[in-house]
Structures are given as structure tokens and as C-alpha cells.
Amino acid sequence: MAFGLLQNEKFNEVGVIIVKCFKKYKLLDPPNKIPFEYPKYNHIISHTYVANGRAVDAIKACKESARLGEICSGATHPMTLHVRYSMANHLYLAGMVDESLKEALIILQAIIQVVGGVNHFTLESHSMCGSLYVPLGMLNTLDYHFVTCLDPHKKFAWDEECIARARFLYSDVLRRLGREKETYLQLELVRALRDECLIKYPQWLKEDPNNELVVFDQMTCL
User: Fold this and answer.
1) How far is CA 64 from CA 54, 170, 194, in A?
2) How many CA atoms lie within 13 A of 186 on its CB side?
3) What are the φ and ψ backbone dihedral angles of 76, each rounded to 5 degrees?
4) pTM of the shown model
5) Which pLDDT tens digit goes with each residue over 169-183?
6) CA-based, 20 to 30 A from 108: which of 11, 79, 89, 99?
7) Per-residue pLDDT tens digits for 110-133
8) CATH class assigned to 1-95
């Protein structure tokens, strides 16, 4: 139930449920004896911390979740990598962009080893790494990540909404590099899909006049 509510961003309800679960876990056994349960708690509670502006607590919770995940399933298990992916996001939200990028690059290499270069998670990780180079001003470096994840031969491997988000992020990079024609082409492609989704899913998508990226972020959860 907590996972479902988390997807709908009902963070306060999530917090109440997962704290009850945590109290139950403590009655059963300590973390090292039932490591599969505690990582779920720490991962989920980290998102409620972020929603309440507690980025540092969110990072700590994710680190503990990843530690226990490694004990339970190993460092390259999908759940462990998923937790670390969340931690990279939390680091970014805390303003720790360098640390976030470092974590994201480690995750990318691990995912490539596990599932290869043509997979939804691999391509999404490339997109994340590329976007993290932007605030660091490393525009030429990030081109590789976006070109890789937007390769037409790989589009079958992930959702069109995720591709649209990556294209939108890449368009900002192209604009900063002065490549206006390419910027226009990328935006023309993604805005058509965005407008279609806004009509089909008005209950899920909310436009922000000050931040066009918001809708593309929401689209990836459809």
C-alpha cells in the first residue's frame, strides 16, 4: 500500500504506514537478521523526508537502505541499484551535484554490467548523468550520454514519455551550445507528445508556467 501511495505522491499517508511497518519490523528482528524488510522502510521513508524538505535525512536513509540491500541481495541487485538511484536524486536536491553525478556514474556502469547497454534502466541512467553535467557547466562532456540514450536504434527499449523527457533535457543543452536548429527540432518532437498527454491525462499532469520540465517529469510516471 505504501508503494502505491508513493506513486501517487501522497507522502504523509506513506509516512504513517511505513512507520507502522518499521515498528513491526523492530519487534521481529534487528536489521542484519531481516535485511530485506528494513531497506524497503529506509527507501520509502527517504521520499517522505524529501517531500518535507529533509534532504539530509533522505540521503542518510537511502545510504542505510543500500547498505542493507547489499547484505540481502548484493551490490548489483536491481533493488540495491534502484535505491542508489534514488540517493543520487536526493543528493542533487540537496545541492550536492558533484556527489550526485559521482553516484549516478557508478550506477550507470553497474547497470551496464547487469543488463547491457540497451535497456530502459541503462538509457534512463545515461539521461540522468547527462542532465547532471548541465549545472556543472560540462556541456561538451554530457553530449555523449544524450546521444547514446537517444540513439534511434535503442528507442524500442524504453517508453516514449522517457524519451521525450530526455529530448527536452538535451534541447536545453543544445540551446546553451548555440545549436539552434537542433534545439528547435528536439522541442518540436517532444512538445507534440506533451500536448497529446495533457489532453489524455489531465488528472495526472499539471503544467508549471515557470518550469516546462515539470510536465515531462510527470509523463515518465504514466
Assistant:
1) 16, 33, 37
2) 21
3) -105, 10
4) 0.86
5) 999 989 988 999 999
6) 11
7) 999 999 999 999 999 999 999 999
8) mainly alpha
